[in-house]
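Standup notes
- HV: blocked on the assembly model, inputs below
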Amino acid sequence: MEQNNRKGWLYLLPAMVFLGVFMVYPLIDVLVYSFEEGYNFASQTYYGTGTYNYAYVLRDPYFLQALKNTFILVAITVPLSTGIALLISVALSSIKKLRELYQTVFFLPYVTNTLAVGLVFMILFKQTPYTDGLANLILGWFGISPIDFIDGPYWAKMFVLCFYTIWVVMPFKVLILTSALASVKQDYYNAAMVDGTPRFRMFTRITLPMISPTLFYLIITGFIGAFKAYSDAVALFGTNLNAAEMNTIVGYIYDMLYGNSGGYPSYAAAAAIILFAIVLTITCINLLVSKKHVHYA
Amino acid sequence: MNVTLQNLTKTFPGRGKQKNNDVIAVNDFTFEIPDGKLVGLLGPSGCGKSTMLNLLSGLLTPTAGKIFFGEEEVTNQPPQNRGVGLVFQNYALYPHLTVMQNITFPLENLKGKDKLTKAQMREKALEAARLVQIDQLMDRKPSELSGGQQQRVAIARALVKMPRILLLDEPLSNLDARLRLQTREEIRRIQTQTGITTVFVTHDQEEAMSICDMIVVMRDGILQQIGQPQQVYDDPENLFVAKFLGTPPINTFDARVEAGKLYIGEEAVLELPDAETGPVIAAIRPEGFVPSPLGSFTCQLQRIEVMGRDTSVVCSHPAFTGETFRAIIDSDEICQISAEARFSLKENKVYLFRPDTGDRIRF
């Protein structure tokens, strides 16, 4: 027994060493940094310990802006992207002709280069001396005067960011949901049909509960992904996100570590811990809600 | 509610290489199911039984022909308008709903004047559950039930809306042998108690014979014979029906009729004064053999299998179409059997069929 135990630990060792060095240690280190005031990378020194870093970050207008942006982004993109993905998948699974073609089309953004996507959005939204962009062209047909989506008002920029985020996360969700829908046995629908169940009720009482584990997975990963948003904002608005009022929490952390104002690892650590606390809370709430509404077969 | 089928046909388009060959799953069925009877659709796998059931439920629409429930034509009615209860082979219970919710599910769809209150639904569900004796399990999920219990829930769900016709698709195939025996009696009891016309599909002839008022034997989408189980067993119209019914199966021999006598091998085993001369297939039920020292039918004894109530004598004969055949005899008669077993034959257990078509030759 004793021998077996030792062997078991030996087998686990490689994984544990890697996880320990690259995951557990940095996590603890971040927690430690967040309580060390004015930590300096070069000299490896700090003034003292306490909660000052948190107090600073929570009062920093840039952080508050980033917090607000992130929450808006999460609140808009997670429900919308999941909902639209569900609609598309249901539509996809109810057609027979050209289904594979549509599936490919919807999956294309997933395998498309980010730079190419950025270019497409530029054509769509960017104002240049020569054109107002495709979006403004369409708005013009309805008699709406051109809006600068990239350097203009806050809501316009936020709209583009949300639009972009939804568009980028959509293919993966559609893919996962289509396969989840396909795995619901036809017998359930036949049984419901014989009992005269209206289509909508079939969807809410059979389809939704049956795919609820998948849906729940997408919502949780969607929340976490949206809270960690950063690169999308950079792709659209450039690296000076604070100036554009489009920074996100991760963007703020990055700026604090390396950005123009850089060199404040303690503040970055505190912001990271705050983000961690937020994500943890939201995920816990999700799990609690799911207990009632998610049905594992 | 009696059910009438008129020239009912269903074809499925062929696939791949046989693009032009449509598959005829149900071919020109015309028969009537009398009100309040339990009818078994019987046939080997792939003979179109389930297609037949789906046509009755409305999940499939026929290629040609008509279906009547009573006086009302339902041929092109969608399933929800037909008032049928369907029990699926794998039960198709909604796994996320409790037994109670599963049973009330069909009731929640009722609209207009049929709409029920929550309390009424519960009461009806309990009533159906009591009928199939699962009223103790109402709060469980299907995954917490045994196969037999799930089956009862499925029946209760089909019965709760008081269907005009109850359809059961291979209802016993997922149960173990003992439970199967018990459940088939249960189905008979429920059917008698409710008086609902019931059609049930099975490939197991014993199942169908034991509980049905009427059996419909199918093969490759073609109706073979309809009748009361005993009648079909005693008077099969062709070789297929004779072979399909009965365990152990009927024994077939290459035989011939010559000068008013039936010859199996070199022996004349039966006097058939009116039969036409020529080669025939002689099919003899296992219980058609009577051991007798002076019997006209001689064969080689292979072994004896004791089953308690009666005894199965396994023999071989050069004219038999397979390896060995079985005769079922009374356990008391076992002493009559020696290495060269001699039997006389019961005339009413011997059937003759044409070797080419398999049609019955009456004598």
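- HV (later): unblocked. The first strand of chain B starts at residue 3 and ends at 12. Helices of chain B lie at 49-57, 99-108, 118-131, 147-159, 177-194, 205-211, 229-234, 239-244.
- Next: hand off to the docking folks.
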